[in-house]
Write a structure and sequence with these properties.
four-stranded antiparallel sheet, Alpha-Beta Plaits, 5 helices, ACT domain-containing protein, ACT-like_dom_sf, flat, 31% helix, alpha+beta, UPF0237/GcvR_regulator
């Protein structure tokens, strides 16, 4: 069965997930995994689906028909068995950071990850009010994978150096 990765975005309103699920189900698709959220008045997400090969073209056409309600793009995905084998040899690492919000935090942290060849599995970021000091706090929660032969201690040292330059608190743990 072909695997598709769908990217979805539309004005936030009731019924978006249901409409998408109906189209997938009507074409024999199996909704496997997703991450979705409301961001700045838009509902956005990524959905992984398996669909019978004979239904793939019809599903893609039906997804195009959702335009006006939401924009959906379908991209070919990697087979589940290959994906599982690839991630089994990588070491997971959880990264949590919080600090006063300012431009460049994600850029500088992601530069460290790229320098060490890490792959981001998930990243969630947001802002919230600083209760005592005023202003805004920036939070990021990541799960990354350290490649075979990579040294998590080197990654930790590099991240801690950058965190001190950015004036953010950093917590690292096992994925």
């Amino acid at each position: 069965m072909p695997r598709l990765v769908l990217t979805v975005i539309g004005d936030d309103r009731a019924g978006l997930v249901g409409a998408l699920a109906d189209v997938i189900g009507d074409h024999g698709g199996n909704w496997e995994q997703s991450q979705m959220a409301e961001l700045a008045g838009q509902f956005a997400g990524i959905v992984v689906v398996d669909v019978p090969a004979e239904q793939e073209a019809a599903l893609r056409a039906a997804l195009d028909g959702l335009d006006g309600l939401m924009e959906v793009s379908a991209h070919p995905g990697v087979a589940a068995t290959a994906e599982a084998g690839a991630s089994a040899v990588w070491t997971p690492l959880r990264i949590d950071l919080i600090g006063n919000d300012h431009p460049g935090i994600v850029r500088d942290i992601s530069a460290v990850l790229a320098r060490h060849g890490l792959s981001i599995e998930t990243i969630t970021t947001g802002q919230r009010d600083a209760p005592m000091a005023g202003g805004r706090l920036f939070e990021a929660h990541l799960v990354v994978r350290v490649p075979p032969g990579g040294d998590p201690a080197d990654v930790r040292d590099d991240l801690e150096r950058v965190a001190s330059e950015l004036f953010v608190d950093l917590t690292l743990g096992h994925g």
